[in-house]
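Predict structure. Chain length: 101.
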Amino acid sequence: MTTKNTTQKVNSNLKLEPKISVQGKVVHYKNSKQTLLDCLESADVEVHYHCRDGFCGACRVKLVEGDINYPMGEPLAYVGEKEILPCCCIPITDITILIDE
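Prediction complete.
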C-alpha cells in the first residue's frame, strides 16, 4: 500500500479510470474531483461514515491492493496498517478494498 501526498504526483500517476474492486463489484473511478467515498456511494456501495474530512475514521476500510492518495494531507483519524479512509482519499491505481459489514 502506498499513499502519496502531492497533487503533482497524483496527476502524473493517476490512471485514466482506476478500477475499484469491492464486494464482488468493479467500480470505475471516473471523476478525479471526487473522493473514493463519493465514487463508492454513486455506485451504490455502502460505506459507513460520519464526517467526510478524515477526522472520525468511521469510514475506515482495508486496502488489499493498489495505491491511494490523500490530496488534502494525511487524515487526522487513526488509520491502522493497510487501512484507508475513503472520505478523504482517491485511488491512483486500480485498488481492491474490503468493507466490514
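Summary: DSSP finds two helices and eight strands in the chain.
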